Amino acid sequence: MAIHLTKESKILVQGMTGGEGMKHTRRMLAAGTNVVGGVNPRKAGRTVDFHDRPVPVFGSVAEGMDATGADVTVVFVPPAFTKAAVTEAADAGIGLAVVITEGVPVHDSVAFLDRARKRGTRVIGPNCPGLISPGQSNAGIIPADITKPGRIGLVSKSGTLTYQLMYELRDVGFSTCVGIGGDPVVGTTHIDCLAAFQEDPDTDLIVLIGEIGGDAEERAADYIRDHVTKPVVGYIAGFTAPEGRTMGHAGAIVSGSSGTARAKQQALEAAGVRVGRTPAETARQALSVLDSGA
After folding, report:
1. What pLDDT was estimated at residue 249?
2. How far apart are CA 213 and CA 201, in angstroms?
3. Residue 208: helix, strand or coil by DSSP?
4. Active-site residue identified among 4, 24, 190, 249
5. 107 a catalytic residue
């Protein structure tokens, strides 16, 4: 099994005919992802050939869903059009929308996330690398060739650190890796993924990557203490950040001691999470937990 994305997922790509959409659709197909269509109202009715795989272009998400049974959309549209794209997908009733776009205005994100919640559409992102269930499906921009299927679940704010931990633990492999995005407002949280990994019988260990700013990791620690029985290993980016400096993602805002890496580490460790000081140390701790069977 996996969470949110499996080999059965049928994927539309909104913005497939643009430069980024074309590049990453090609990569998704190479990873074995079942991309069933693109969406572009101006190019509806055309077919795009990706080597030996023709992919039809539909005029709307609803049309694509009706024709293909798609249940996932990956959004590669400019920030100014992201609100409309996600709203369209939610109104069509798609189950999962993966919003890769960076630079989406926060008020737009708030609006389309509210619409999606009311329509029953899960959103991952915005400003995220997407998610991958290795050997099954890849929705977004995560490199598919740096790991393999396994029994670790990974949830991360940072795209770069998602890739690094995937590589560090490549010999063990992952059930699903989810990059939730680092914006102040995102559709899927650490807690959402923790709950899903807790219920997934093929996930034995969870790796949680956070970063300085906000209180998402502290809230995740509370959830882990009360609801997660599987072992969790964590890493917080920003241990060496200068005091009082705003760094990284738009969500990485530190005020006094609130939101610091040390405060997050203490909260997670109080919940029984092993927290590494570096990605490499975090990977070693994950391997140690797996080896011990803890």
Report:
1. 60
2. 32
3. strand
4. 249
5. no
